[in-house]
Design goal:
Its main location: cytoplasm. The chain has helices at about 10-20, 40-50, 85-90, 90-95, 140-150, and strands at about 1-5, 30, 65, 75, 100-105, 120-125, 130-135. By secondary structure, the protein is of the alpha/beta class. The structure holds adenosine-5'-diphosphate (ADP) and magnesium ion. Magnesium ion binds near residues 39, 40, 58 and 105.
């Protein structure tokens, strides 16, 4: 577990971009944090780093939005999900074991169905900025965090 203080939005975007550059096909990034913590901000920067040129908006009503980039990007926002069953109905497993990068906002709400390996990114309000807590599950994600902190 690594903690990083992000003093402003620019720093949030910076770390998101660098994280995006380190992601590979099949990676899953779980974003956890209150409303306004910066989950969508990070997602936009990751999308930038993946050469996604479309404008990213939170898929609040659709659960998942798909984008073309260096790798396909699957952006989930599961805030309105009522049970994990709904995730299976939209084909969650094909996404997470697929060829793209999955980013899941509010992933704590579907913790029971997350894969064994993923990168957990928590964002908390702290002073004027945000605290980011990175917890890698699996050696691939440990390496990504190591690279990110270099
Ligand atoms: P979420 O998707 O978690 O609800 P958003 O990314 O939509 O959050 O919004 C985050 C808000 O916080 C934006 O207004 C952004 O400018 C701001 N923000 C992002 N990172 C920081 C930071 N490190 N310090 C202060 N404000 C930030
Ligand atoms: Mg959001």
């Amino acid at each position: 577990m690594e903690k990083i203080y992000l003093k402003d939005e620019k720093e949030t975007r910076g770390i998101g971009y660098r994280l995006g550059k380190l992601l590979n096909k099949g990676n899953v990034v779980c974003l956890i944090g209150d409303l306004g913590a910066g989950k969508t901000t990070i997602t936009k920067s990751i999308a930038n780093a993946l050469d996604v040129h479309d404008y990213i908006t939170s898929p609040t009503f659709t659960i998942v939005n798909e984008y073309e980039g260096r790798l396909p990007l699957y952006h989930f926002d599961v805030y309105r999900i009522s049970s994990s069953e709904e995730m299976y109905e939209i084909g969650f497993e094909e996404y997470i074991y697929g060829q793209g990068v999955c980013i899941i906002e509010w992933a704590n709400l579907i913790e029971d169905i997350l894969p064994d390996n993923y990168l957990k990114v928590e964002l908390n309000y702290k002073e004027e900025g945000r605290e980011m807590i990175l917890t890698p599950f699996g050696s691939e994600y440990e390496k990504i965090v190591e690279e990110l902190l270099k």
